[in-house]
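Quick question: what would this complex look like in 3D?
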Amino acid sequence: MKPAPFTHHRPETVEETVELLADLEDVELLAGNQSLGIVMANRLATPDHLVDLNGLEELQYVEETDDGVRIGAMTRHRTLERSDRLAALVPMLPEAAEQIAGPSVRNQGTLGGSIGEADPAGNYPAALVALDGVLHLRSADESREVTADDYFIAYMFTDLREEELIEAVTVPTDPFPPERTGMAFLELKRAAQTWPTVSAATAVRVDDPSADDPVLEEVRIALANAADIPLRVPDAEDVLEGEPLSEAGLAEAAEIVTDAVTPEGEMHADRDYKEEVAGEYAKRSLETSYERAIDGETQHGDTTC
Amino acid sequence: MSTDATGDYDERVTEEITVTVNGEEVTAEVEPRLKLSDFLRNECGLNGVRVGCEHGVCGACTVEQDGRTVKSCLSYAVQADGAEIETVEGLTDEAESEDGSLHPIQEAFHETHALQCGFCTSGFVMATKELLEENPDPTREEIEEGLADNICRCTGYQNIYEAVERAAEEMRE
């Protein structure tokens, strides 16, 4: 339960950080340490060097850009959870953040850490896939952008290179004007500290929230812990778009989701069960998103199931 | 761990850190892998910091770092350089007691029998402190959420939740 020895580096700039990554062998990045710390305590990882990112204040921010929001990789879950700006623009992100573990973990854990870990059960990976998020990666030689969709390749395996740092995430807000948008992040979880059994991240935009039957113009559906990567289900989105949300449409979308997912069975939830939960939670999350789009109220934090 | 042929064991690098612990400045030479929990217990003698699971599950090692709770077993002492740490021992100072009287949270845990073996208690007390500082009148659901990072194997939690309600009431007055 004690980690193996390592050398601790505490750069103060991103510049310094990417140079360290270029120079050192056998390095891990130390962000909130809520996952790496566990792995190292159990000596499942024994890196020679830890590059501590906690001195990089330049990576802790939430800012509005011309066409979206940009969030620094070292922004804590607690900050995302409480960001009024995010609650107004991309409420899925605070709702995903507030359901991660308990307060002391959220005080430390970071957006970049979660994306770097790339656990398919993680909350941000599914949310970013649903929202067409873009990751901003940087090495000593290069800065590049990768869509969340391209970034997650296989189980905990990503497009991030050894010498790269996740600097920030951007989420486009153009598709989702707040007055006609609803989003929801819905988890099935046994206890605060466990990984969710399955989560459903959904977002919808309607044509006119005050119409009798507002038509769905845009639908996003992504599932967490339902495949080896966070899984977007475009076929289920397609059957819903162009119509008001109906029982029949929801049932069809749920069935498509259940067919699309390929979850691993777990001790408390076998594969069949998780497939069924994925469909059902996609459905419930969509219902909530649709209600929120029509209500046009602050959408954050009132999921009931 | 054994010494290898190159003598690395003796040459292991340490860093000097200065940490304000319960209001007192402490300077020490530490190995980077030393957990904050072990630093507080072994270097500072603060045994109120409980080491339970040592991998971030149980919450018994919860302390405040710069006013926010952290699991001190998932933090290295070198990361606390320049920080202010408060442990459960600091609470009685906060209560300005010279006669051993307890902080209202501790008093409420005592009064409502919110502990049996007591191993988890200091972690729960620190989590409660942060919760009540941010939300002086929490609902039962908010209390459960606020204590979600802490595990108790004796009480079944009900008395702990009652203690938090009682402490909240006391501290609002």
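Answer marked as accepted. Residues 271-295 of chain A form the longest helix (25 residues).
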